[in-house]
TrEMBL record:
It comes from Clostridium perfringens. Catalyzes the attachment of tyrosine to tRNA(Tyr) in a two-step reaction: tyrosine is first activated by ATP to form Tyr-AMP and then transferred to the acceptor end of tRNA(Tyr). GO terms for molecular function: ATP binding; protein homodimerization activity; RNA binding; tyrosine-tRNA ligase activity. This is Tyrosine--tRNA ligase. GO terms for cellular component: cytosol. Keywords: Aminoacyl-tRNA synthetase, ATP-binding, Cytoplasm, Ligase, Nucleotide-binding, Protein biosynthesis, RNA-binding. HAMAP family: Tyr_tRNA_synth_type1. GO terms for biological process: tyrosyl-tRNA aminoacylation. The gene is tyrS. It comes from the Bacteria.
Amino acid sequence: MANVLDTLMERGYIKQFTHEAETRELLEKEKVTFYIGFDPTADSLHVGHFIAMMFMAHMQKAGHRPIALIGGGTATIGDPSGKTDMRKMMTNETIAHNVACIKKQMEKFIDFSDDKAILVNNADWLLNQNYVEFLREVGVHFSVNRMLSAECFKQRLERGLSFLEFNYMLMQGYDFYVLNKKYNCKMELGGDDQWSNMIAGVELVRKKSQESAYAMTCTLLTNSEGQKMGKTVNGALWLDPEKTSPYEFYQYWRNVNDADVEKCLKLLTFIPMDEVRRLSSLEGSQINEAKKVLAFEVTKLVHGEEEATKAQQAAEALFGKGGDMSNVPTYEMGKDKLGSELLDILVEAEIVPSKAEGKRLVKQGGLSLNGEKVADFKKTLEEAEFENGEVLIKRGKKNYNKIVLA
């Protein structure tokens, strides 16, 4: 069995290990069961989750078995890692809905057939847990002094950390212990912001089960300036086509900075490394060819080849290469809205997230209607502006939408 660690390191996935030499030996000798946790805080996964699923997919392709753990139980508390304030608590109904949506999305990326991967929900063992028994069984293995020194708690102590959130580390550690007992799970993978929680799980398994356990963190998806990638003017870059259209998704990757192309090709596609290096070495205007490959491949993985092709054709049509304009994201507007303020229509169509953002675009000269810049906040949309029943909206340099009369 080939050692997937070399592939993961070459492509830039690995940030930290608990035991590097032992991890390498384990992955060489065994078919390892490992897990990654996903908290169902929304009804869709986003690009930050996608990199974790690529991590899982590489491991699965190398013969190892993933467990995708949906945090239906831990989501009732909320993870304080990387947060400056306490999360708003969700209802059990909302969590159940989000879990169902995420399960459906995951099956597009991970092969769950014939026990090749397992999907679990920690609500199954956390929600009916006896609190006193949990403290006796799990709490005894955790040092409060050590917990308070963990990075995920340090940044919250001055602003206030609830006891509710303080329990999160114990619960995540207990997840690893349960999976180790039930499925012989020996490794946890996760984002680098989860390092403290993951170490806690490794130590709990080693203390309670007297067995080896390992953790490995994945680099977070950041640009060359260290900022998290995956944000658009309308918020997060979702994997759900109803939340982020395949065209908008494609355009995001088509427009990444030159300095980020190589990293994205490594982390977000399965393109062989020789081809990644060739594409990344392109300079000047030629780097746009690499960006097109990146955009197509990532969109194909998330939305399928048909939608990726449509998005590519729409982009080519808008940038003067004769592609298919029918694939540009479209909003149908009733004639009763004629004469309404353009910014109100754009907010309703979710082309801009708010009227304030629309005004900012107008002020900066970043909003156009049929090729002409919009200069008036109160501009109305009139029937005469519809050419063949549609108008073309441009946001920024490369984001297009159509509005058609229904």
